[in-house]
Amino acid sequence: MKRVFAVLLAAAMGLCAQAPQAQESPRTVIVMDGSGSMWGQIDGRPKLDIARETVGKVLAQIPAEQEIGLLAYGHRRKGDCGDIELVVEPAAGTGGLITDKVNGMRFLGKTPLSQAVLIAAESLRYGEEAATVVLVTDGIETCQADPCALGMELEANGLDFTTHVIGFGLSQEEGAQVACLAENTGGRYFEARNADALIDALSQTVLSDGRAAKQAPVPTPKASLDGPEAAAITTEINVDWTGPDAVEDYLEIVPATETAATSGSRNYAYTKDGSPAKLIVPADQGDYLIRYIWQGPNGREVIATAPLTVTDSEFAISLPPGPIQAGSAIAVDWKGPNGPLDYLAIRTEASTEAADITYAYTGDTNPLEMVTPNEPGTYSVLYIVEGTGERRIGVSVPLSVVEGTIDLRAPAAVRPDTGFSVAWAGPGSSQDYIDIVPAGYTETYGELKYAYIGGEGPGPRELSAPSDAGAYWIRYISEGAGGRKVLHQIELSVDPDAPDVPTSLLVAATFDVPADFAGTPVQWSAVPLEGQAVSMDAWAMNEFATGPVSGNFEPGVYSVRGDATDMVFTGTVTISADGDNRFTILPDETLSPTTTPDMADGHGPDDGADGTPWADYAYSCLGDQNCPHTDAASGLSFTLPAGWVATSPDMTPASAGAQAAGEQLEHPYVEFYEAGGNMNALYLNPRQWIADNGPCQTTGAGELCLFRNDAAPNDPAAFMAMGALQASLIHAAPAAAAPLSADEVESLLDRLAPNRIPAN
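^ VWA domain-containing protein, sequence as received from the core. Prediction below:
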């Protein structure tokens, strides 16, 4: 998950021309996140520099009599959710001291966001006097707490408590998961995408303005929605709308029981894209609402709703997410009657009269592999029922095809009949090929030399130069649906006086960690990003090293990762033939081994007290057969796949208030780990989850989510384990034990204390 950094500022810290009197302003605590994600950049600047600068500017505007303190977390230890410290007690005249402390902080730990907010509120005696904080965050909670529940708890227990939240570069889904902390306390949520927007947002959180906003909210504008009353799973619907059309307004589909304006729905469309809005229907049937979300001055509000019944369907088609490269092979999941002549087709439009650009019979293959058209554009993928005297469309879904990255890289000149390598980037369909033709030749046949792309992996292809000297083209030919097409070409000179083809075009690159982490042993790896003319072979170290580490690479863009024992460093770098190629890779706690298996020793997050790998887990299945388990305390039953372990089911809620009230979760929280191999991980009912983490499936015990493994993102073992667990998970409330009778109590006490004096 993305890491979070938070700067909690009293609303009195706004950049106002006339500051309110001290007695009108609540006591304030700044809570500064010291997590590794603060090294991330916005507009080329580390977020920690932007935060330091902003805090300094705002503190310079605070009256000397304003009582302000500083609370920090993650600034002393890595991977510790308990690393929270009140650095400066709230007092008057502390602005300069706080600025110095913030400027001297290190950024290397975890992010106990909710617990830090709670401690800050308690340090301000929020239950006895007015208190306002402002949270600036670039991500979501990572210490298994619930900011939304905390917001309701603080609002219920506070005398006059308000939290404003500023999402610093957050996506819509991420912002929805933290905006509730503001909205549940009567505060506002701001979106800040750069340093200027951050300062502007802070300038609007002046104490008197923030409190007045709770008493006199801006009137809600009118909006309307006009969409279908029912739709089948996974289909696309059009919804006509009217409304204020503010910059961040959007329509979404949520379960009918959803009441919060910040739902985090993945089924949404921004109003700025026009009316009608195109929405993809959820994959689960049931009762839903189409909602208009207005991003007004008082935060997000639901200003219009329309009911939607999502029905199951005899037909469904599921495509890979996002735009798809022209001419590429894709896996298409389908649902249908699977008649002997049924097939999937790609067409320019969803019509029974339209011609098939390409097709594939369903047979017994699911998913089906289909090659997309090699012309960018919008298409339809259809399930076609072909029966006796019948041809009809079962379902149609839109397919967006884009040009994508096409590239070729080869020596500019070679000698006649000399072999050489051609690196490539393109769709990579099995029938695509690279050819050599005379310069100016435009036909897609009659090549002089060629080499197929398919069947040999993503590395360079070997070609031999023509025998005759002259000017030639090297071309990438796509065999996409609809016919051949030249996607890219480069010049080649065949010259008897050409220099020898270099045996290696590799250049050196060096990776290191920031100075704050100097001396940390790290195991490094680098993988070239897809879509470029670079061999896709990964580079990796087999051992840990301290200090700078170097390797040789083809010029290109690489994803670099460094695994330490309690921290992970990640970054994307561009290695060039004429560049310095020395890179500082920043910490990324979203991949910390505290939440995913520890790859350093080949076992996992727990090697066992007796030295046996994985032995200390509550449940394990380390043999060759799957293992059924039932946890009596929680009532959870499941079958562990062979080679997997699980933590003890936890029914404890995240918020302190719910814990104090003795409340229990509806379904338990469990972590599942693969005890070897690619170290895959599954989470049952994770407390926080974003789409980028990986897919989720509904089970008989709640949501089961697969954490995407960067080392093996499409590992079949992970999806097989997910399917096996999904089918086996059952949660039933544990049976209550019958109370003991008075005689049974007496008998038990006698056995425990034979010399006691019986009760009269």
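The CA atoms of residues 436 and 474 lie 5 Å apart.
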